[in-house]
Amino acid sequence: MDIVMDAQALNAFLERDFPQVAEDHRVESVGPGRLVARLRVNDRHLRPGGTVGGPSIFALADVAIYCAILSRIGPVALAVTTNATVDFMRKPAAGRDLLAECRILKLGRSLAVVEALIFSDGEDEPAARCSMTYSIPPKRPQNSAL
């Protein structure tokens, strides 16, 4: 399946439909079955000890995986997470943005399974691994009444 939305289109979609996450999250690149997104880390993402907190890591994975799916199916605002697993493997580096490198494992008509590795910018070893399943709502026939 071809790329339907590139990084620019995905960022515009987030700014328009999800402004609450667009300030912190940005799609960096989109490729066949892959996507890289960035969390612009600032003080509100930190927990005691100066590391990025788990909720911020989860949010990056969720936004990035959602965008990876939309890059292939288009702007389906009602696609939702139905399952999520996060393995926190190491402390993210202090003072650096986080990157989510996503890979689409399965993209069906009603379900998508995507994996994301979360890295501190410039680091080779992942800080976390996330796997999520999304439910994709059925397409409405084009001539159907609302």
Automatic annotation (TrEMBL):
InterPro entries: ACOT13, HotDog_dom_sf, PAAI_dom, Thioestr_dom. Residues 49-126 form the Thioesterase domain. Pfam families: 4HBT. Keywords: Hydrolase. It comes from the Bacteria. PANTHER family: ACYL-COENZYME A THIOESTERASE 13, THIOESTERASE SUPERFAMILY MEMBER-RELATED. Belongs to the thioesterase PaaI family. This is Thioesterase. It comes from Paracoccus acridae.
